[in-house]
Amino acid sequence: MGLGICNLSIVPVRISHSDKSEMITQLVYGDLFTIIEEKDKWTKIKCEFDNYEGWIDSKQYQKINEVQKKDLEKKSYSSDLVEFVENEKKELITITIGSVISRSNLLNHKFEGKYITGKQSKESIVNTSLLYLHTPYLWGGKTPFGIDCSGFTQMVYKINGYKLLRDSKDQATQGKTLSFIEESEPGDLAFFHNKEDVIVHVGIILKDNHIIHASGKVRIDRLDQTGIYNNDKKTHTHYLRYIKKII
């Protein structure tokens, strides 16, 4: 097995080795991964950040070695929605918020934008979440051009120095469970279940009994003991299972 780094702005990770297969997540610029298998023009990978596995196009990454990896432990993330890095030819490459720009030197790229390093406060988590407002929903997405509910929470926490797993049902196993909404603070996570009691949705709690979450788009709705009340539809759309305090 080898190592690889995402050297493009966004790379789809698919459930099988075909362009027609389902996108289950994405890599963003600077993400590291372990190479599990190479087949034809496809590479099966395991993401360093959350151990998620899937297939990427073999033309869409750069291989690295263990020596290079040791220099990549410190992580800084781009904090503007859209930024640029400059390659050796002075060409601009677009990157999105949450890109691991501390790894740009390895790729011989130059970055001069804003970034975040280290663990941040809950206030910063809320402020970061608001940057994604109106991002369209995209299954498997992790960028301001398309994102799903757990990709949204994972990226917001990642940028602020905290590790969440990829799927909402797995994120629900993390942190401390709170008994009541009244115990929660802005920046905590709320999880929602279906009729089979399976966790299917997650969002970030805001002040004054509101929540920001990805449903159709990243939006702000009211949160009560029943769940999410959608003001546009005048009904509850998601049913609350529990609230988790991650930090």
The radius of gyration over CA amounts to: 18 Å
**What is the count of distinct domains?**
2
Tally of separate helices = 4
Number of strands: 20
| Biggest sheet layout | 6 strands, antiparallel, barrel
Range of helix content: 10-25%
List the helices and strands and how they pair.
Layout: E1 2-5, E2 10-14, E3 23-28, E4 32-39, E5 42-47, E6 53-57, E7 62-64, H1 66-69, E8 76-78, E9 82-86, E10 92-96, E11 115-117, H2 122-131, E12 142-143, E13 146-147, H3 149-159, H4 168-171, E14 176-178, E15 189-193, E16 199-206, E17 210-215, E18 217-223, E19 227-230, E20 235-245
Antiparallel strand pairs: 1-4, 1-7, 2-3, 4-5, 5-6, 8-11, 9-10, 12-13, 14-20, 15-16, 15-20, 16-17, 17-18, 18-19, 19-20
Helix pairs in contact: 2-3
Describe it:
This protein has helices at residues 66-69, 122-131, 149-159, 168-171, and strands at 2-5, 10-14, 23-28, 32-39, 42-47, 53-57, 62-64, 76-78, 82-86, 92-96, 115-117, 142-143, 146-147, 176-178, 189-193, 199-206, 210-215, 217-223, 227-230, 235-245. The model has no long low-confidence stretch (mean pLDDT 95). Strand 4 (32-39) and strand 5 form a beta hairpin. The strands form 6 sheets. Strands 15-16-17-18-19-20 form a 6-stranded antiparallel beta barrel. A 5-stranded antiparallel sheet has the order 6-5-4-1-7. Strands 2-3 form a two-stranded antiparallel ribbon. It folds into 2 domains: 2-117, SH3 type barrels (Roll); 122-245, endopeptidase fold (from Nostoc punctiforme) (Alpha-Beta Complex). With 247 residues, the protein is mainly beta. The chain is built from 4 helices and 20 strands. Helix 2 (122-131) crosses helix 3. The radius of gyration is 18 Å and the shape is globular.
